[in-house]
Amino acid sequence: MFDIFKIGFLTITFIDVIDIALVSFIVYKLYTLLRGTIAAQIFVGLMIILLISFLSQAANLRAVSWLLKLLTDIWVIAFIILFQPEIRRLLVLLARNPFLKPFIKSDAPTATDIVAEAAFELAQQQHGALIVLITSAGIRGYAETGEPLNARLNKSLLTSIFYPRSPLHDGAVIIKDNIIEAARCTLPLSAHTKIDGESLGMRHRAGLGITEVADVLSVIVSEETGQISIAENGQLTTGLSKEALKKRLSETFKPPAIKGWKGLFEQYRKNK
């Protein structure tokens, strides 16, 4: 093996440098995940004990090495017990990594399922709603007109926003991926006031208008009739059932097919 340099009897090879770099990177990433918690202080303490143990063995300090060995022999068990919540969190983060998503089949509801379920529930209660889903480019200018939320999408939050007594129920909710970016947003109105002889209310004109100026899809729930509509590319489709809404959303937000390792790598770079 290629030797880089020697320090006395200690020989440093290229593999040793890679080994140290990998361990340093892993320790750093673990610390960044734990930073700001009590577990971070415990983690630093464990790292100090391991460092002292390594130095004592290198210096041939037998008594100190024996004392620290009592701790290091059980450090794996102690690590699992002390960091159980953090280990669970780390495993969840690894499972959500975009690189691993094509290989993992998840039963968790998707954004399209959540929006469809929430829209159907709002329609049954005849609570008006305007939900804008971003398909490609963002619409930050319109999101800034409302109240920023940056909250993870879920049905309970979405239905509570459009509850008539909620201070956020007026205006639109803007969703990107699985995040509710903002609520009570003001959208541009479409110039069309009638479609197929039926007059459009302000909510429908706003939902239609944003699709005329941006690459988005709007889900509109009528407060008067409980009817569910979709606006896309300046076209309005009304009278959708829950199943039809799910199908339409799934078709629009269907992930592109991945062809080979190159396609997988490109998708990973896009999702970063």
Overall description:
- With 272 residues, this protein is of the alpha+beta class.
- Helix content is 49%, strand content 19%.
- It has helices at 14-34, 38-58, 62-72, 75-82, 84-95, 111-124, 140-143, 155-161, 202-213, 242-252, 260-271; strands at residues 3-7, 10-13, 129-134, 147-152, 172-176, 179-185, 194-195, 198-199, 216-221, 228-232, 235-237.
- Strands 4-6-5-3-9-10-11 form a 7-stranded mixed β-sheet, sandwiched between helices. A two-stranded antiparallel sheet has the order 1-2. A two-stranded antiparallel sheet has the order 7-8.
- The longest helix is centred in the first third of the chain and has 21 residues, at 14-34.
What labels would you give this structure?
single chain, 272 residues, alpha+beta, YojJ-like (1, 2 domains, two-stranded antiparallel sheet, 49% helix, elongated
Task: Summarize the topology.
Blueprint (H helix, E strand, L loop, with lengths): L2 E5 L2 E4 H21 L3 H21 L3 H11 L2 H8 L1 H12 L15 H14 L4 E6 L5 H4 L3 E6 L2 H7 L10 E5 L2 E7 L8 E2 L2 E2 L2 H12 L2 E6 L6 E5 L2 E3 L4 H11 L7 H12 L1
Parallel strand pairs: 3-5
Antiparallel strand pairs: 1-2, 3-9, 4-6, 5-6, 7-8, 9-10, 10-11
Helix pairs in contact: 2-3, 6-8, 6-10
